[in-house]
Specification:
The protein is of the alpha+beta class. It has helices at about 20, 30-35, 50-65, 90-95, 115-130, 150-155, 200-205, 215-240, 255-265, 275-280, 285-295, and strands spanning about 1-10, 15, 40-45, 75-80, 105-110, 135-140, 160-165, 170-175, 175-180, 190, 215, 250, 305-310, 315-320. The strands form four sheets. It has a six-stranded mixed β-sheet with strand order 5-4-6-7-1-8, sandwiched between helices. Helix 8 (about 215-240) runs parallel beside helix 9 (about 255-265). The chain is globular and about 55 Å long. The mean pLDDT is about 95. Bound molecules: oxa(dethia)-CoA.
Length: about 325
Amino acid sequence: MAEVLGFGGYVPEKVMSNEDWARLVDTSDEWITQRTGIKRRRFAADHEATADLAEAACREALEDAGLEPEDVDELVVATDTPEVYTPDTAAFLQHRMGMREIPAYDLGGSGCAGFVQALDVARARIAYRPRRVLVVGVELISRLISWEDRSTCVLFGDGAGAVLLGPEGGRARILEVVTGTDGSKADILGLLTGGTRRPFTLEAARRGDHRHLTMDGGEVFREAVRRMSSAVEELLGSIGRSIGDVALVIPHQANARIIDVVGRKLGTGRVYVNLTEYGNTGSASVPLALWEAQATGRIRPGDLVVLTAFGAGFHWGAAALPF
Ligand code: UT7
């Protein structure tokens, strides 16, 4: 059984408000607030890259657990905005933090569902052979998306969240995780230029394709609601619990209206929301919210907490964490 030994999170200092965006693109605080619930988001400083954000969250999780980087046996980084294209961010992070020569790898491309998928992998690795696995969800989205496309740029923020898992002695257990994929929707949300299908060219770069996030907002909205709520129902069914037993649902923080409908479909008002301050931080959103919720006393010993996430792919997942 995997347990959470420590929680960590990091958001950059720079605050980007809706008013700041309204000075750059044709939008308004009113539109962004009404359609998304987001008021502010954090953006990384010029000198920061993905591994810097991840490192800050990882160090916090280790400190919370009272452990050192050399105590980590495996590292999983969930990100869609890596330090460089190859090698993965985990390689930079392993060296930067002074970890031993442990297995370290990225789980990339799962969009905002990456962290929950990584939790599932980590708990399976611990069940296979007891070890301490550091799992971090991190995104530095502000640097890779178009600052001119108002339909996507206002949604996102940068940040990182981490958990240190081990076989025993933690403050919460990873009781169960369910995940799923529907690849028939793979072209509906993503960064589709830069791979082998459509490699970078000068013309593509001139058009700004390398920063163009393809997104059918309405379809993503509907699928996010459907998949996040059904993942929680499947999860609760598999552990023989009902929504009334859940003290707090921590959903992916994409849009307050999505979260609201998910809560109503599930029949609970006990849903954590922090996107007002951070926007959609991709793979970082669930671990960042989890870190904040437990640090601010929203979670008490004995609480059953449920995480649920949805992202590009489409991928989704839900996890049950009894504290
Ligand atoms: O984690 C996965 C990442 N993505 C998501 O989670 C996105 C999920 N979808 C959503 O959150 C919502 O669909 C959005 C917030 C993206 C859009 O909200 P909506 O209520 O579905 O608006 P819409 O796309 O139907 O657009 C309504 C109008 C359009 O104008 P017209 O065609 O009605 O004249 C847009 O051009 O709002 C316009 N619009 C904006 N106006 C001001 C789009 N973006 C903006 C903007 N400011 N930033």
